[in-house]
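Hi everyone,

Forwarding the result from last night's run.
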Amino acid sequence: MSVKIKNVLKGSLAYKAGILPKDILTHIDGNEIMDVLDYSFYEKDAAPTLSIIRQGKPIEISLDKQEGESLGLEFATYLMDEQRSCRNKCIFCFIDQLPKGMRESLYFKDDDSRMSFLFGNYITLTNITDHEVDRIIKMHISPVNISVHTTNPELRCKMMNNRFAGKSLEVLWKLCEAGIEINCQLVMCPGYNDGQELIKTLTDLCKWENIRSIALVPVGLTGHRQGLAELHPFDKKGASEVIETAEEFGNKTLDAFGTRRVFAADEFYLIAEKTIPQPEFYEEFAQLENGVGLWALTKSEAEQELKVSKKFMPFKRKVSAITGEAAYPLIKELVDSTTAKWHNLECNVYAIKNEFFGGHINVTGLVTGTDIINQLSGKDLGDQLIIPDVMLRHENDMFLDSITVEELEKKLGVKVHVISTDGASLVDALVNIKKRK
């Protein structure tokens, strides 16, 4: 395989060496270049030799460069080829539970090993090639994020609706044997991979020192599951049992490796009505994207900001903040602590009920513009409405239902202030808004 060069940055090493747009890059120092991982890995070599095809003729170009120095080549896509989609039909797949009519990009199911390394995406290993596995081991790419769900091959096939899902566990064990660092995700489905099955899975995973974290995440169920497998959410008893198992194995890995590797998502503690552990329990917060330790970290950040901030507020200020139902108690507590310190500040906190997705969806990251508009229209929101960026796509301009921030402002008649999803940013946003003239 080879990749076509789209652009050569002017003044770069490749530009000075005479490499041209539309040249086809096939190898660097004899190593085949198939995509961004190959290129990123071998581009760093000192004094590389590039194998190029120009107008059908092979040529070789040697560059005099320092190790780590960029070549200056650009390609048509970031990955340098097509992003790979998922081949599974998991019983818990959230994308299969989306309502119709949303923007097309939201229905794409990613399962690409390169995205795991580059952006932290989780992969199932069901469509990874032998070449990719060997490359991960050769380049010692770490960490790799893997959606395991269960180490029971038959159950994994059943949960993922893929007859190869059980056999692909062999790739997981091969990566473990090679010493590749791995983060694991288990989407927990009551009656499937909890109970004794969870104990088996954690027993299998926790014996490997290079599996550095395991997140247990409750299945998310929307109101759009027509024709899908029958699933039900965790109740208080079931959530408590998951927490108990997670903490038991976390204590075991703490004794064995000096670090706690197994964590239940914050949502399990909320369902079980248990106190969420202190920040130190979560060590390096390796699984924040899975909602593990986010509550403790956010609270700690806000409390620290409240402790050190000496900002002065000489005038009265009224704002509003929104969050999902699950995080409402935390955000309300942090806002109340802030208004207690700055008496001129008034802030109403609104928990947005997720009517758009229905079902049992209450996390902040899935709040839509439609629900915000429907539930806040006509309310006195003050000078600004504070929203966390987790509600928006990467560009911070649009909600999942394609409502833009600008549209939200027009509908509600208030300026929207988008903040980072951390405690310090919340406190700073509350007390650092300039008075309108």
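The longest strand covers residues 211-218.

Cheers,
N.
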